[in-house]
Design brief:
It is a single-pass type I membrane protein. The protein is mainly beta. It has 4 helices and 37 strands. It is flat and about 205 Å long.
């Protein structure tokens, strides 16, 4: 309520209200000054309001007093319950934890004024989850309330927590939340086999390394605490088997380490131990974290293929062994209870099988072709054995046959030698060291011996010195050699081996005599050098050869230039277009000159030809040829030829062999006709003399004479 001292209660004063919430939340009676709330207030929404009030004269509208400010504070009541803003909660605690082990802390929030009364004082309690867990009423910390809670018994717990204000008194507001608590696993349980004996049946044909069975120990723990390691306890049959752990199923997988044989042993018994990999020292007192079970394996009898007595056979045979000779045998047996016969045959996948054969019943291997060690020193093929009772059951074995060498090749000089001896060689001087090679497979310690052939032993030009280490030296026996007397010497050397039978060969060495300096360095071995004058050096010989080559080149160039110059002169005289003089007094080269004119008419009088252009000059323009009427039979030429023929037939001095007689007869006329231009069919009008003006100033007058008038047929009347 507002009141002014100037208000006499007669209605002359008017009260006004302004500020925070005026007109919306609060209103004022203008006459009495009473302030009223026109809607509900919420302290949690707005805890106070600041307003301004003033007293105004009703008539003059002027303020009677200065404006005054006041605050309206909203008083709190317990109208908000506690709330768990982070709920619901999820927590975990290890199993077998002691009483009081920390689990989780929860917190509830009350929106009421914590400074006024107990509206915001919260107390926590458990509505559901006892007697397993407890909670601190003030802090909200949840702890375990029972010892040795086992995850394998119960893993999940749901706890209902209540938060109540007013200090938990009657009439207080409350809120709840849920806490889901999981017991985490610890390794508190050892692995246990569900039974003490496991029986397995395994075929004897099982492959080494294959899995033949599985056993499993049960561990109620979880995760890595349930990981199990299996081991075979040393004992009966343990060395034939192995066991590993399947990391997904934690089963023990038994594998075969060695092959089984029903005929050798039909059953095996051994023990398997299962233990945890990750142990917890807090539970060692519970007992050993492992368990043991017995595994009995019964071997099943299977129809097996034959078994060879050896994994591989190696045989030897001499290369000269006759065809059909037995060189060895393979043996295979059927080890099953009802033993069956075995048959042998070659594996025909190999190309070398044709060299050998095998007896199908006995397994003996014999040669089928002649063997040559130098061609193939070793043969490698396979033999297959099958059971008669079940041919599909087969086994294979490799056979290696080494071909032994027989001394059939004589030793020879290993490489071709180019041997030379100086003219100034001394007796006993070694001019060449030679070695030998043998195509046979030489045994260890085989020796080669060297000696001169008996046919030259009495000619002491050279000798052979055997060094007893498979080498020999060629030594000179004379004091100097002459190339002029003999340039080449041929020395036959006999080489023998030490094998049986002894093989030998004669090898001829070619020794060339060379000119050397005083130190023994070869200077020349050429044949031509023998005939050169003494004292002429190599440089002088080269200079002489160069001079000869230069002279030959000069002569060839001179001849070529002369020919080229002569050819150019001839072409210039014939093709010069400025030459206006034509020579007609050319007699030619006689009847055998067929290039200057056509002599076809003389050889065959009956041939009628058109007039041809001369061949000895280059025509300037194409001229029309005149046609002559066909000539009559030239009887005078025929009579002349017959007369001369008779004269030669009766001439006793004529040669008795065929010869060519030339008859120089010109006849009574010339088919070449006249060379004059008087009878030419062409006229000056047909000629074009414009080219004369292109010949230069010397032909200017001639060009003006022939070029003044042009022939025009249209002007002729």
């Amino acid at each position: 309520k507002l009141h002014s001292d100037l208000d006499k209660g007669v209605g002359t004063v008017k009260y006004t209200l302004s500020g925070d919430g005026a007109g919306t939340v609060f209103t004022i009676d203008e006459t009495t000054g009473d302030i009223h709330a026109i809607r509900s207030l919420d302290r949690e929404e707005k805890p106070f309001y600041t307003l301004r009030a003033q007293a105004v004269d009703v008539d003059t509208k002027k303020p009677l007093e200065p404006e005054s400010e006041f605050i309206i504070k909203v008083q709190d009541i317990n109208d908000n319950e506690p709330k768990f803003l982070d709920g619901p909660y999820v927590a975990s605690v290890p199993e077998m934890s002691p009483v009081g082990a920390y689990v989780l802390q929860v917190k509830a929030t009350d929106a009421d004024d914590p400074t006024y009364g107990n509206s915001a004082r919260v107390v926590y309690s458990i509505l559901q989850g006892q007697p397993y867990f407890s909670i601190d009423p003030k802090t909200g910390v949840i702890r375990t309330a029972l010892p040795n809670m086992d995850r394998e018994v119960k893993e999940q717990y749901q706890v209902l927590i209540q938060a109540k204000d007013m200090g938990g008194q009657l009439g207080g507001l409350a809120g709840t939340t849920t806490v889901n608590i999981t017991l985490t696993d610890v390794n508190d349980n050892p692995p246990r086999f569900p039974k003490s004996i496991f029986h397995l049946k395994v075929p004897e044909t099982s492959h080494v390394g294959s899995a033949i069975g599985r056993i499993r120990a049960v561990d109620p723990d979880f995760g890595k605490n349930a990981e199990i390691e299996y081991n075979i306890v040393p004992g009966d049959g343990g060395n034939l088997f192995d066991i590993t752990t399947d990391e997904y199923t934690q089963e023990g997988v038994i594998k075969l380490k060695k092959p089984l044989d029903f005929e050798t042993k039909k059953a095996y018994t051994f023990k398997v131990e299962a233990s945890n990999l990750h142990l917890d020292h807090r539970f060692h007192s519970v007992g050993p974290f492992k368990d043991t079970a017995t595994v009995k394996i019964n071997v099943l009898d299977m129809d097996e293929p034959p078994v060879f007595s050896k994994p591989m056979y190696t045989m030897e045979v001499y290369e000269d062994t006759p065809v059909g000779t037995i060189i060895g045998a393979v043996t295979a047996q059927d080890l099953d209870a009802g033993s069956s016969s075995v048959r042998y045959f070659m594996d025909w996948k190999n190309d070398v099988d044709s060299y050998f054969t095998i007896d199908a019943t006995e397994g003996t291997i014999a040669t089928n072709e002649l063997l040559d060690r130098e061609s193939t020193a070793q043969y490698n093929f396979s033999i297959i054995a099958s059971k008669v009772s079940n041919p599909l059951l087969t086994s294979k074995v490799n056979v290696i046959i080494n071909v032994l060498d027989v001394n059939e090749f004589p030793p020879e000089i290993s490489v071709p030698y180019e041997t030379s001896v100086c003219e100034n060689a001394k007796p006993g001087q070694v001019i060449q060291t030679i070695t030998a090679a043998d195509k046979d497979l030489s045994p260890a310690g085989q020796r080669f011996s060297f000696k001169l052939s008996s046919e030259v032993s009495n000619k002491p030009n050279f000798t052979v010195h055997d060094y007893r280490n498979n080498t020999a030296g060629i030594e000179a026996r004379r004091n100097g050699y002459s190339r002029r007397q003999q340039e080449l010497y041929f020395l036959p050397v006999v080489i023998e081996d030490s094998s049986y039978p002894v093989q030998s060969s004669t090898n001829t060495l070619t020794i060339r005599v060379c000119r050397c300096d005083s130190d023994g360095t070869i200077q020349s071995c050429n044949v031509e050098a023998i005939f050169l004058p003494v004292g002429l050096s190599t440089g002088a010989l080269i200079a002489i050869l160069l001079c000869i080559v230069i002279l030959l080149v000069i002569v060839v160039l001179y001849v070529a230039l002369r020919r080229q110059k002569k050819k150019d002169t001839l072409m210039t005289s014939k093709e010069d277009i400025r030459d206006n003089v034509i020579h007609y007094d050319d007699e030619g080269g006689g009847e055998e000159d067929t290039q200057a004119f056509d002599i076809g008419a003389l050889r065959n009088p009956k041939v009628i030809e058109d007039n041809k252009i001369r061949r000895d000059i280059k025509p300037d323009t194409l001229r029309f040829t005149r046609h002559r009427p066909p000539a009559e039979d030239n009887t005078d030429i025929r009579d002349f030829i017959n007369q001369r023929l008779q004269e030669n037939d009766v001439d006793p001095s004529a040669p008795p062999y065929d010869s060519l007689a030339t008859y120089a007869y010109e006849g009574n006329g010339s088919v070449a006709e006249s060379l004059s231009s008087i009878d030419s069919l062409t006229t000056e009008a047909d000629q074009d003399y414009d080219y004369l003006s292109d010949w230069g100033p010397r032909f200017k007058i001639l060009a003006d004479m022939f070029g003044e008038e042009s022939y025009n047929p249209d002007k002729v009347t």
